[in-house]
Write a structure and sequence with these properties.
Oligomer: single chain
Number of strands: 4
Radius of gyration: 13 Å
Low-confidence stretches: none
Distance between the termini: 11 Å
Mean pLDDT: 89
Largest sheet: 2 strands, antiparallel
Shape: elongated
Helix content: 10-25%
């Protein structure tokens, strides 16, 4: 689980994450530089 604290709001407790691929993480179907490594680090804190 990943907990994100936002000042003035309730904390977010994330177990799963859904992301948009093209236009957010990739360009023309290719992951942007560094995204794969960051997703691997994030995946270690969330359920698969």
């Amino acid at each position: 689980m990943l907990t994100i604290t936002i000042p003035g709001q309730d904390a977010l407790h994330l177990e799963h994450l859904v992301l948009d691929f093209n236009g957010t993480l990739a360009c023309d179907g290719v992951l942007l530089d560094g995204v794969a490594e960051l997703l691997q680090r994030l995946a270690a804190t969330l359920r698969t």
